[in-house]
Amino acid sequence: MVQGAQVWYPQGSDLRTGGQRVSVCGQVSSVCPLLVVAGTSFFCFSLTDGALSLPVLVKDSGRLWWTQCVCVGQSVCVTALRVCVLRGWRGNNILCATDRSEIHTNYTLTDPEPPSDTPPPLMMSHNDDDDCEEEAEPEREAGQSAVRMKKSRVISYQGTVTEVVSEGAGLYVIDRKVGLCLAYQPTPRRKLRAGDSVELHHVHFLYRPCPDFPPSMLCTCLRSSLRVSGFSRAASDTPDTRCPADGALPRLLLEKNMGVSQYLWACHLSSQLARSLVPGVLKQQCVCVLSWKLMECVWRRGRGRGRRDIYSEMLDEPHTCPLTQYSVDHAVHQYISVSGLRECLETECWSSVSLSSLLPPDGPGLSRSQINTALSWSCRTLTSDPQAGDSLRQRPLLLVGVLELPSQKSEQSLQLRDGTGTLACVVTETSQGGGQRGVFNTAWIGCLVCVQKFTMVTERFLQSDFPSYQHLDQDNFITHKHCRVYLQFSLDHLHILSPSVAMVTHLRQQGAEPGGEVTGRKRRREEEEEEEASSSSHPCVSMVIRVEQKEGVAWRNSGAGLKGEEAGLTPCFSVRAAVIGRVVSWGRDPKNEPMTEREKETEREDKVRQPGDSLQPVAMVIRV
Question: Is a pLDDT exceeding 60 seen at residue 5?
Answer without folding.
Answer: no
